[in-house]
Amino acid sequence: MGEFGNKFRQARETKNLSLDDVSNVTKISSRMLKAIEEEHFDQLPGGVFNKGFVRAYAKHLGLNDEEAVADYLVC
User: How many other C-beta atoms lie within 10 A of the C-beta of residue 33?
Assistant: First the structure.
């Protein structure tokens, strides 16, 4: 797991949230959230969906969503 995914996992764990907790609020499946944390981007649907998932997940965790998307695009 790289720095990008770790940032999400650590932020989620700091807030004592499970992947299911985040999934219930963001409506992104926990499988997709786990793929983001583990940087298995090939498991995501692709295109604009990936950026949308990263943006929504970052916002929910209180991370800078613009920075998260920019970091994702570099991965």
Answer: 23
Four-CA torsion 24, 64, 4, 31, nearest 10 degrees: 10
Single pTM value for the model: 0.94
State the amino acid at position 65 in one-letter form. Answer: D
pLDDT in tens, 19-64: 999 999 999 999 999 999 999 999 999 989 999 999 999 999 999 9
Nearest to 51 by CA among 30, 23, 28: 28
CA–CA separation, 57 and 55 (whole Å): 6
pLDDT of residue 1: 62
- CA 25-33-43 angle, to 5 degrees, is 140
Which one, of 4, 65, 7, 15, lies nearest residue 39 by Cα? 4
